[in-house]
Design a protein that fits this description.
- The structure is a single chain.
- With about 500 residues, this protein is an alpha+beta fold.
- Among the domains are: about 80 residues, Ubiquitin-like (UB roll); about 200 residues, membrane protein fhac: a member of the omp85/tpsb transporter family (Porin, Beta Barrel), CATH 2.40.160.
- The protein has eight helices and 21 strands.
- A 16-stranded antiparallel sheet has the order 4-5-6-7-8-9-10-11-12-13-14-17-18-19-20-21. A three-stranded mixed sheet has the order 1-3-2.
- Strand 4 and strand 5 form a beta hairpin.
- The relative contact order is 0.07.
- About 5% of the residues have low confidence.
């Protein structure tokens, strides 16, 4: 009988030749479809089983976790304690048990010490009457040390940064964070430089990822010669507590800082010279935030409200009450087009010192508001709006700013692209409590806060309009705009033409 293979044939060549790529691809697709169908069927069966038995009384015998090497057992017991409370056990059903275990898993995620995939397995507890479940969570801990280094570029400014984070320091989701940042520029408004250093320790309170205490030390130096003929250096410490309420997030903090206004330019104005030297600020701050935006950098829908209140004068040599609020709303229109509007306002109220007979003093340049630039009032130079003394921007005590933008998706890129075209209009007003007239005591002011607030509403605000290109990078938002100043007050510094901005928060 003759062999079906000729002497020159190779069996492997024959097998390869018979493997048509299209046939193999179709077979792979068929296998994947069968696997997916079986998985979906199993999920439906499980969902149906849970639904049919959703009211079955059960309880949780125990919750165990597998895969931890660093995390403390006592810490994990505190995390699981709420789900294992005796009062809850009495009212548990299969449905509520599943919901409670899901909340516990989400809680573990929020600590940031585990990889996103946390698998959960349920089994009947061995020593039960059949109504108790034992839960096993399988996790993988994230690496303890994270180092990030890179360069920054924006607003004609370039520099570098180094961030280091040590996670889960003592096995209870504690973290140590250190950062160093330097930057220099040669912008058309003058050379500038800045540097900052920070070392912070944070820990959750009562094993709750939504309640975190933090202590930190910081140091920064910044050249402000490009707008106010001086340099500013700050060293200090702070302590804070972050927590959630039913209405939003809160941050309560204390800051003690030594500030220096130094290295004045030869042409520094009298206002800058008067504020030169050292000051010590001791203050408490409360920040309240509620944020429903779908995207923090380029929202299509949702709203933001933030209020920051600072009380200084618990020591040191500056005393004031400072409040600043921000509100914005985004709304989708049609075909990927959206509308956003925002409002910001702030006020500083000078307060008498704690010492008997110490009157209220005017605010210092370290604490005043500044307005103008690519991230708030486009079409004006950085800090180009508001009071000036000669060539120096000296800031103000009351301000109001607002803006509105319409965002359009780019042709061919679609609504899912991080690029948008925008048309905007924005404006604002910044005023100061006037300093004493000649011959009056330097410790008092000549205008009341009410006068300054009224002044904000006198006449039109400084206004600019324009169009531009927006890119929402995961880290920051970039804008390249063509802006046209429409209303400009005397001595304010407008900027007609292209303007580049990078930041996290834009008006």
């Amino acid at each position: 009988m003759a062999s079906p293979l000729s002497p020159d044939d190779d069996v492997f060549d024959r097998l390869k030749a018979s493997a048509d790529p299209e046939v193999v691809s179709e077979r792979e697709k068929a296998v994947q479809e069968r696997v997916r169908a079986q998985y979906e069927k199993a999920q439906r069966r499980l969902a149906g089983l849970i639904e049919d038995n959703s009211t079955l009384p059960v309880n949780i015998a125990d919750i165990r976790i597998h895969g931890t090497k660093i995390t403390r057992e006592g810490f994990l017991k505190s995390v699981f304690a709420d789900a294992l409370k005796e009062e809850k056990q009495k009212s548990y059903t299969l449905k509520t048990v599943m919901e409670e275990l899901q909340r516990t898993t989400d809680k573990l995620h929020r600590f940031g010490i585990f990889h996103p995939t946390i698998n959960m397995y349920l089994d009947q507890a061995h020593s039960s009457s059949g109504t108790a479940l034992s839960a096993l969570l399988t996790v993988q801990e994230r690496g303890r040390l994270v180092l990030k280094t890179g360069t920054e570029l924006g607003n004609a400014e370039g520099g570098g940064y180094l961030n280091a984070t040590l996670r889960n320091v003592f096995g209870g989701a504690e973290s140590i964070y250190a950062s160093a940042t330097t930057a220099t520029s040669t912008a058309d408004v003058g050379a500038r430089s800045r540097s900052s250093y920070e070392l912070a320790f944070a820990t959750p309170i009562a094993a709750n990822p939504d309640t975190v205490a933090e202590v930190a030390g910081f140091s920064s130096a910044r050249s402000n010669h490009f707008f106010a003929s001086h340099e500013e250096a700050t060293q200090g410490v702070r302590a804070g507590l972050r927590f959630l309420s039913s209405h939003g997030s809160h941050e309560l903090g204390y800051t003690g800082a030594w500030r220096q206004v130094t290295n004045l330019s030869d042409g520094a104005s009298p206002t800058i010279r008067e504020d030169a030297g050292d000051t010590v600020k001791s203050s408490i701050t409360h920040t309240f935030t509620t944020d429903t935006r779908d995207n923090k950098l380029l929202p299509m829908t949702g709203s933001l409200f933030r209020n920051i209140t600072e009380l200084a004068g618990l020591g040191g040599d500056v005393s004031f009450l400072k409040n600043e609020l921000e509100a914005s709303r985004s709304h989708p229109l049609a075909h990927g087009i959206s509308f956003s509007a925002g409002l910001r306002a702030g006020v500083i109220v000078p307060l008498p010192g704690l010492s008997e007979g110490t009157p209220a003093r005017p605010s210092r340049i370290n604490d005043r508001f500044f307005l103008g630039g690519a991230t708030d009032i486009r079409g004006f130079r950085e800090n180009g709006i508001g009071p000036r003394d000669g060539n120096d921007a000296v800031g103000g005590d009351v301000y109001l700013a607002g803006g509105a933008s319409v965002f359009f998706p780019l042709p061919r890129l679609g609504v899912d692209s991080p690029f948008r075209l925008q048309a905007f209009v924005n404006g604002g007003r910044l005023v100061a409590l006037q300093k004493p007239a000649d011959g009056e005591k330097s410790s008092t002011t000549t205008t009341t806060l009410l006068d300054a607030v009224k002044e904000v509403g006198v006449g039109l605000p400084s206004i600019a309009a324009g169009v531009g290109l927006v890119y929402a990078h995961p880290v920051a938002r970039f804008e390249l705009n063509f802006a046209l100043p429409v209303v400009k007050r005397e001595n304010e510094r407008a900027r007609k033409g292209l303007q580049f901005g990078v930041g996290i928060s834009f008006l």
